[in-house]
Design brief:
The chain is an alpha+beta fold. It has one domain. The N and C termini lie far apart (32 Å).
Length: 89
């Protein structure tokens, strides 16, 4: 495992290397209110280095669920991810 992919060791965290941009394309396509609009992380028209945190128990049906954290770069939003993962909301 690379250093980058080992930064977040919480068992609830799943990190992806999306070389073909399949997940990134779908995440951008399915983004909608009340999900926050990311202020960064678009490179060559693809999302990259973005953290998305979803409420527990949500499932991906016809569209991805809305995230309550949707921002990056990951190194800059680690504290927000930790807060979201430890929140009792």
């Amino acid at each position: 495992m690379s250093i980058v992919l080992s930064r977040l060791s919480d068992p609830r965290v799943t990190q992806f290397w999306d070389e073909e941009h399949v997940l990134a394309t779908r995440m951008a396509k399915d983004a909608r209110e009340p999900q926050p609009k990311q202020r960064c992380c678009v490179r060559n028209n693809h999302l990259w280095d973005l953290a998305a945190v979803y409420r527990a128990g949500l499932t991906w049906d016809a569209a991805m669920p809305t995230a309550f954290v949707f921002e990056g770069p990951v190194v800059d939003v680690q504290e927000r991810m930790i807060e979201a993962l430890t929140s009792k909301e």
